[in-house]
Design a protein that fits this description.
Length: 165
């Protein structure tokens, strides 16, 4: 079941995961392949007005992906470029990737390879945890005591109650 607000069944996301299912056969014999992990998407949602953001999990990687809602044609000169993207949890570096049927996309590695995930559901739980962290703005630092702007007791008043200067 997909949590509210997620669109893992969007046609662009479905096409994207189908690409990785086609690649899967060629990956199975590699030492980075973890047969305990299925290919799936997690948490895809709108990001800005033109992209979808979510996690793609495969037996060989876990990546945060930015996928344009409208396909961006392949441009080999763009593949491999590193782009900084501002997420609510802070800026992250994404690598431009692409595939003929999907077009260009951007990927940020969360885990690669994914060999440390050995229990059912473990990789999915980690993907959801990391996505939540990246999509949550950092908490504002607490107001400093005695900073001159916040009401209350400042350090001088605490240490020297009669010398309130």
């Amino acid at each position: 079941m997909t949590p509210a607000g997620e669109i893992d069944d969007h046609p662009r996301v479905t096409a994207f995961v189908e690409h990785f299912r086609r690649v899967d056969a060629g990956m199975r014999e590699l030492p980075i392949y973890n047969d305990k992990i299925a290919i799936e998407t997690l948490g895809f949602r709108p990001f800005g007005e033109t992209e979808l953001l979510g996690v793609v999990l495969t037996p060989w990687f876990m990546n945060l992906m930015l996928l344009p809602i409208k396909p961006v044609p392949m441009a080999m000169a763009e593949i491999g470029k590193i782009i900084s993207v501002e997420l609510p949890g802070g800026a992250r570096k994404f690598v431009v990737g692409g595939e003929e049927t999907v077009g260009l996309y951007r990927a940020h590695s969360l885990h690669s390879p994914v060999l440390t995930f050995t229990l059912p559901g473990q990789a999915v739980a980690e993907a959801r945890r990391l996505l939540a962290l990246l999509m949550t703005p950092p908490a504002a630092p607490p107001a400093a005591i005695g900073n001159g702007n916040a009401p209350g007791i400042n350090r001088r008043t605490m240490l020297f109650p009669r010398h309130n200067t």
